[in-house]
Design goal:
single chain; 316 residues; mainly alpha; flat; endoplasmic reticulum
């Protein structure tokens, strides 16, 4: 019996020791887990603070940028209003606003800038790709030389060019067939036909729709300007266009149609690039000319009768 009691006591002691060890291990694990959870919570707090700060900085920067752009726009509007309102500013364009030739040209220019091909034409006339623009410039010059000095027409040039390209393609194809049939290991590849295979001779409906809409808008803009000019909506506007029409008539008497087209071609290929390179110098000279012409233009403008509009309301 005594031995049994001793064994029971030993077992109880071992159980108590085991329980104490388990408690210690569990408490250690719980404490470590709590510490890890606290660290994760602190990290999350820091991340949330960082995100909030970045969001607030981004929002504040956007608000500042929007505010600055709005202030700049307001200042521009104020300057424009001051220029229009100032009675003796000296420039008839600023006094007449929409009734000036500059404003009418700007209307047409804005419509042309909406054209899908505007960016491509802009790159060509600004010589951004020298090779492409140089080849086009040389081809157009050759066409003008053949028309002016060799008595060719555009239709005849098109016919001869298409005939030459077609015959060359046929001959090249026949030669390549003969060489591949009778000469072993020799083959010719027509680079022109290979490039034509990769090209798509198809214009999408969306592109056609954009071009038609732009052309319709351009025609309507020109018709609106013609209505204002021929209907004498403003004496000053009609007088400006009358001078331009007279100069066009005098110029057409001195030059042929081909010469006028050629000079227009040279101006379109030379003037934009020249202005892009010498913009500061040209702007300075233009400002000097405007300053010299300010006083006589203001005197001339004072002699032109201003249109007065009266509105009457009918009451039933």
């Amino acid at each position: 019996m005594e031995d049994t009691q001793e064994q029971i006591e030993q077992v109880e002691q071992q159980v108590e020791e085991t329980v104490e060890e388990v408690k210690e291990e569990v408490t250690e694990k719980v404490e470590t887990t709590i510490e890890e959870v606290k660290e994760d919570i602190n990290k999350l707090k820091q991340d949330v603070k960082g995100v909030a700060e970045s969001v607030s900085n981004a929002v504040s920067s956007k608000v500042e940028a929007t505010t600055s752009s709005a202030k700049a726009t307001i200042n521009e509007i104020k300057d424009g209003v001051k220029q229009v309102v100032s009675g003796n500013s000296g420039c008839p364009y600023s006094m007449n606003g929409e009734f000036s030739m500059c404003s009418q040209v700007c209307k047409v220019s804005k419509v042309l800038q909406k054209n899908p091909s505007f960016e491509c034409v802009k790159k060509i006339v600004l010589w951004e790709d020298i090779v492409q623009t140089g080849i086009l410039f040389a081809i157009i010059n050759l066409v003008f030389v053949l028309i002016s000095f060799c008595n060719y027409s555009l239709i005849s040039l098109f016919g001869y060019t298409a005939f030459t390209v077609t015959i060359s393609s046929i001959l090249f194809h026949l030669i390549s067939l003969i060489l591949s049939k009778y000469v072993q290991g020799v083959s010719l590849n027509n680079q022109f036909t290979d490039q034509l295979k990769t090209l798509s001779f198809h214009v999408h409906d969306a592109v056609i729709e954009k071009q038609v809409n732009n052309i319709a808008e351009l025609v309507n803009t020109i018709l609106s300007i013609a209505k204002d000019v021929f209907g004498c909506k403003s004496v000053y506007l009609s007088a400006q266009f009358a001078i331009v029409f007279y100069l066009i008539g005098c110029l057409s008497k001195c030059l042929s149609n081909t010469a006028i087209l050629y000079f227009g071609f040279l101006i379109s290929f030379v003037v934009p690039r020249l202005y892009a390179e010498k913009k500061e110098v040209i702007d300075q000279q233009c400002s000097k000319i405007c300053a010299l012409a300010k006083e006589p233009l203001s005197k001339l403008h004072s002699l032109i009768p201003q249109a007065q509009t009266t509105s009457t309301k009918k009451s039933n």
